[in-house]
Amino acid sequence: MTETTKTHVILLACGSFNPITKGHIQMFERARDYLHKTGRFIVIGGIVSPVHDSYGKQGLVSSRHRLIMCQLAVQNSDWIRVDPWECYQDTWQTTCSVLEHHRDLMKRVTGCILSNVNTPSMTPVIGQPQHETPQPIYQNSNVSAKPTAAKILGKVGESLSRICCVRPPVERFTFVDENANLGTVMRYEEIELRILLLCGSDLLESFCIPGLWNEADMEVIVGDFGIVVVPRDAADTDRIMNHSSILRKYKNNIMVVKDDINHPMSVVSSTKSRLALQHGDGHVVDYLSQPVIDYILKSQLYINASG
């Protein structure tokens, strides 16, 4: 496969991130490495989307703190960003609605036509409407009139860096930078761009709990978008999938990360990191990066049992 024909992927992780751990970042890295090794995908971005305060989980600290901790955790990454959209809504958003939001946002910002997992787009990426006079983005006379996949992905990356980052705690504003839209070239090379939900096997297992998830939402999440699962604690993902008719139906849309390294995925646990903080356990450094620890101590978060 050439880079043009590979599926280009943005990984989206939704969760409390209360606080975000080293394991959460490792999940992104492991998923990207695995997808690249398949030879079918190019991961061009990762998005951390913390849940709204009204989610109601006991001990959930303010999104203001969680957004800052997430930003500190990814500050050295050149491809993972934190997006505050969920936190800035009026109420809690479903995982399905978050995926749909980012899909629609990518359409507007990049000009790309995003395809569902089961219906790869055969339509070239379109820029501005035919009746408008095109104004080329690339002014260099040595550049081909038809931008390559790499050039488009460069613009997508620029757009991600604009829209997927934590803003200061100010009043609401529009996230979309209209000037970032690629709609100034008539026609690009065909590129398939998809947003995939990144999760641990514990979330996959929650799909099997009757009544916990809306079945229509599950159909969209697994059927239209697709999931990348990072197993935790030697979970049997095949057994989990066989317990749900929807997971069985869309089994081909669920990619389970497999590698030869024995990762201690328990370090993903925000609960264990909070307990370590409350008990003054020095092993907290196994769970959290130092900038996150420093922020927690400065802000006196999670120190008492109430969170």
Structural notes for this entry:
By secondary structure, the chain is of the alpha/beta class. It has a domain at 7-119 and 185-261: 3-Layer(aba) Sandwich (Rossmann fold). The chain is built from eleven helices and six strands. It has helices spanning 22-38, 63-74, 95-110, 149-163, 201-206, 215-225, 237-242, 245-249, 270-278, 284-287, 290-299, and strands at residues 7-15, 41-50, 80-82, 192-200, 227-230, 254-256. Helix 1 links the parallel strand 1 and strand 2. Helix 2 runs antiparallel to helix 11. It is globular. InterPro entries: Cyt_trans-like, Euk_NMN_adenylyltrnsfrase, NMNAT_euk, Rossmann-like_a/b/a_fold. Its EC number is 2.7.7.1, 2.7.7.18. Belongs to the eukaryotic NMN adenylyltransferase family. Its main location: other.
